[in-house]
Amino acid sequence: MWNEKHADAKSFLALDDADLLRQLEHRFALERGEIALASRPRAFPLGFSFARRFVGARLALIGDAAHNVHPLAGQGLNLGMRDAASLAGRVAAQMRIGLDPGMPEVLNDYERSRRFDVAVNGLGMDAMNRLFSNDLGSVRLLRDFGLRLVDRAPSLKCLFAEEAGGASANAPRLLRGEAI
């Protein structure tokens, strides 16, 4: 999987197999060996979306089943891990006291706990993608200024790294290495 501008993706899809393989070989430099097509490539628009509901009757959605985010630095995986850890904590708490972990109240609590994090992070990743894929001079200046500012502020850099890795104080216990 790789990202292309919409027009470039359309061009790739229009190529015959031999020309497509030549383009892929040029882009990926054959460092991992010969490239072969297992099937015709397909294109999917990247962006941010999430399910209206994360839960139903005895059902909870996590990860890509609950939300789709632009694949920046593995943040979709991190969101999915926070979903799984949050749900696991709630299920374990219910089971520890002998209650049904599939009760609507438990699942609704999981949904409430995840929607804000998913929305904020998904919108943030979408904004980052738009910011870093924009070559307008003024946007590039602002972006470079922001990167230099964060690079020169170790505590801010650490905060961003913790948040991106999902290990902040707000993370579910399981992700912080605590027993559930």
Plain-language structure description:
With 180 residues, this protein is mostly helical. The protein has a single domain (49-176), classed as FAD/NAD(P)-binding domain (3-Layer(bba) Sandwich), CATH 3.50.50. It has helices at 6-14, 17-28, 75-96, 104-132, 137-151, 154-165, and strands at residues 49-50, 55-56, 59-60, 67-68. The strands form two sheets. Strands 1-4 form a two-stranded antiparallel ribbon. A two-stranded antiparallel ribbon has the order 2-3.
Strand arrangement within the widest β-sheet reads: 1-4
**C-alpha end-to-end distance:** 36 Å
Low-confidence stretches: none
Q: In terms of structural class, how would the helical and strand content be classed?
A: mainly alpha
Strand-and-helix sequence, N→C?
Answer: HHEEEEHHHH
Q: What's the pLDDT, averaged over the residues?
A: 89
Overall 3D form: globular
Q: Tally the beta strands.
A: 4
Strand content: under 5%
Q: How many strands, what sense, and barrel or not for the largest sheet? A: 2 strands, antiparallel
Quick recap:
This protein is mostly helical.
Topology (elements, then pairings):
Layout: H1 6-14, H2 17-28, E1 49-50, E2 55-56, E3 59-60, E4 67-68, H3 75-96, H4 104-132, H5 137-151, H6 154-165
Antiparallel strand pairs: 1-4, 2-3
Helix pairs in contact: 3-4
Q: Any descriptors?
A:
180 residues; two-stranded antiparallel sheet; globular; 4% strand; two-stranded antiparallel ribbon; FAD/NAD(P)-binding domain
